[in-house]
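Async update (no meeting this week)

Hi team, since we skipped the sync, here's where things stand on the single-chain job. The sequence we agreed to prioritize is pasted below, unchanged from the tracker. I ran it this morning and attached the output directly underneath so nobody has to dig for it. Comments welcome in thread, and please keep replies under the output.
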Amino acid sequence: MALSVKAEERDGWTVLQVSGEMDISSSPGVRQRVHDAAAEGRRSIVLDLSGVRFCDSSGVGVLIAARRLMRSCAGRLRLILSAQGAVDGSHVNRVLAALGVRRLFEVYSDQTAAVDEEAQPLTA
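Output:
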């Protein structure tokens, strides 16, 4: 399944909706979209990964690099791992948890929660 990344602006946040597979050949596209958004001055980014069906270590590396980039420019990064809010069933959530890096990310149940300044992230 090919990877696609669609961008939209929502309540001051840049939402990058990612779907498909994040692997060694496709994950650089996600990295580039995050870099482009940061270079354009966007400091609040949501990566909606609810449509990602597979994520390997290169995809995890992209997520960690995106977190590092946003922190370095005083920005914010939030993740959505499952459209239904059931992050335990999300492949990406399981991979992040297995690698011990899930706690590094602010995870929200859906786009509405992710762009809400009052919403609290889901617990790991």
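Quick observations from my side:
The mean pLDDT is 93.
The CA atoms of residues 81 and 89 lie 9 Å apart.
Reply here if anything looks off.
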